[in-house]
Amino acid sequence: MSLPILIDDQLIGITSISILPLESTADLSLAFLVGLLKALVPSILMNLYVVGINQLFDVDIDKVNKPNLPLASGEFSMEFGMAMVSTCLLMSFAMGIMFQSPPLFSALLVSFLLGSAYSVELPLLRWKRNAFLAAICILIVRAIIIQLAFFIHIQKYVLSRPVVFTKSLVFAIGFMCLFSTIIALFTDIPDVDGDREFGIQSFSVSLGPEKVFWLCISMLLIAYGAAMVIGASSSFLTTKLVTVLGHCALASFLWIEARSVNLTTKTSITLFYMFIWKAS
């Protein structure tokens, strides 16, 4: 994933979950904005660590799969890469401690532990070799920890209210569980050659890129269908129309784009991967 998309993902994802505890426009205060920034900055730094540590241990694989990455191409030295990754990690934890929000620090800690377990070449680690463990890492962090931690961070430690889990939070967790699984599956589709060569048993290596691709499309269509059903049950006509028509349009665009993807071309797969991020 490129740096701009990584940052956009964090900005949109954390902001979206952070507005769920708001009860009125009066909650959109300076305190809320400061609390949101306290969540965003260390989280982006931790994500840079997770992506960076993966590239440090994947240099040889990336020379096959993604030769344009800074370390794989030789643009950055390993020493510079390690310095950047270490700096991001230390700054993230320093902010997490300084901001005195237990759910925020917990999210950073779990992201560090699972991100390291996913990539680091040590006994019992390097979980990315196993398709199930790799998917579990992504699902736990993206779908559960981030949603719960930042919801509680805003509700209790910014707005000073008791923790009350809402229907919107439950739906967000459910949707992100499905979406994170799709991302975990899809991200390995263009990397089959390098993964097979270096013994990474991803689902794309085991089942084949085409089967995994259409499995991802089916899961996304199910997610959009569920969103339409939930939207249709709303008592507010505007919400009902926007949710149903909006997700119907997204599902239609997804199907049209999916049928045009050339699974033998990395560029085509990558462009569609970017489309999924934008459409979800």
What does it look like?
With 280 residues, the protein is mainly α. The protein has a domain at 3-162: Tetracycline Repressor, domain 2, CATH 1.10.357. It contains 13 helices and no strands. The longest helix has 28 residues, at 30-57.
Question: What is this entry, summarized?
Answer:
With 280 residues, this protein is mainly alpha-helical.
Instruction: Figure out the total of helices.
Output: 13
Flag low-confidence runs.
none
**End-to-end CA span:** 16 Å
Tell me the number of strands: 0
CATH class category name of the domain at 3-162: Mainly Alpha
CATH fold node name of the domain at 3-162: Tetracycline Repressor, domain 2
Key features of this structure:
Tetracycline Repressor, domain 2, 280 residues, mainly alpha, UbiA_prenyltransferase, Homogentisate phytyltransferase
Topology:
Layout: H1 3-18, H2 30-57, H3 59-65, H4 70-73, H5 78-98, H6 102-119, H7 131-157, H8 167-186, H9 192-197, H10 203-207, H11 209-232, H12 237-259, H13 266-279
